Amino acid sequence: MKILVLNSGSSSVKYQLIDMDNESVLAKGVVERIGITDSVLEHEPADREAIVIKEDIPDHAAAIKMVIEALLNEEHGVLNDIDEINAVGHRVVHGGEKFASSILIDKEVIKEIEDVSDLAPLHNPHNLTGIRVCNDLLEDKPQVAVFDTAFHQTMPNRAFMYALPYEYYERYGIRRYGFHGTSHKYVAQRTSALMDRPLEDLKIITCHLGNGASITAIDGGKSIDTSMGLTPLEGLMMGTRCGDIDPAIIPFVMEKEGLTMAEMDSIMNKKSGLLGVSGISSDSRDVEAAAGEDNKRAEIALEMFDYRVAKYVGAYVAAMGGVDAIVFTAGIGENQKRTRADVINNLKFLNIKLNKEANNSRGKEILISTEDSSVKVFVIPTNEELMIARDTQEIVSAL
């Protein structure tokens, strides 16, 4: 079975074509700058050199059509016929409380995704666009929605409720939903395999640290708490997001600066975090380089980020009554040895011991704690696309 995995963003479409017989990636790529100048498709077949196609890409329909044409192209394609695509798996950011697992897409599912789009206005509408385009271009192919929020639907109400008037939860669904669920689920499963222990017997804390960042407490294979909330803004300090702040700051700054709610929202989501504190960049590599040149604001930004990761990990150790393994994943988690070392150094009370030589690695699956460490610490590259493909295969195979 060959499955096309699509992740449709506001101005981009990321994709992978995966052969589920051996879970190999036949091709992958990204269409960027959809609807704006300098649109480009970067297409990478597994067995050939990557290609770059630059042309006007006015909308997502044109983008996905270009993806299919690239997959079928005689020179750099990997398919002989479009019918070789057996199904399409879509990343959908927000499923609200309705979806606790992946699901076959039909008209009712599309309506439900539309109904919760006000909870993820920057993501769900574009996810829906990808679904509708595939309905037109691949109308006889089954499609599956895989939700970022689904994995966290096992949280107890004490973890997902906010201390606001209860009617806001009943009327508007205001609660903690959490995100990056597909990533947290994947690395937890890999941790179980690497430790050769059943997932049901493990307490794992997964740290998905990238431009967007979240931490999840996974007890017995189930998410019991996670750092992101109603939206991806809550929780850790991120590339451009502020994370946890005193909510009274919002009206205070708005009044002082004469800001609208939309302007304040933009500041918290797009101008804060590493970028806001360092004044340099949202990319941790740039901030780390500046800190190495004795830039004090850059150093403060890194210390804040690492401290807050450790603080959440400590809180989740308490929430689960212990921890067997801590996992670092995503761009920062997989590649930034300083962050991993700083976080572990802040968790010495757990008798975690870092293997400095093993930690001097980038982007590979590796145990970075010593043999006598009381808690195992892993770096595990995430693979959300494979998780989406697996869920899609399971659902489609049952049809």
Plain-language structure description:
With 399 residues, the protein is an alpha/beta fold. It folds into 2 domains: 2-147, 2-Layer Sandwich (Nucleotidyltransferase, domain 5); 197-384, Nucleotidyltransferase, domain 5. It contains 15 helices and 14 strands. It has helices spanning 60-72, 107-115, 124-137, 157-160, 166-172, 181-195, 249-257, 261-270, 273-278, 284-292, 296-320, 330-335, 337-345, 356-359, 384-397, and strands at residues 2-8, 12-19, 24-32, 40-45, 51-54, 87-92, 103-104, 143-147, 203-209, 213-219, 222-226, 325-329, 366-367, 376-379. The strands form 2 sheets. The protein has an 8-stranded mixed sheet with strand order 5-4-3-2-1-6-8-7, with helices on both faces. A hairpin with a 5-residue loop joins β4 (40-45) and β5 (51-54). α1 (60-72) crosses α3, α10 (284-292) packs across α11 (296-320) and α11 packs across α13. The two termini are 14 Å apart. The mean pLDDT is 93. One of its GO terms (molecular function) is ATP binding. One of its GO terms (biological process) is acetyl-CoA biosynthetic process. Its cofactor is Mg(2+); Mn(2+).
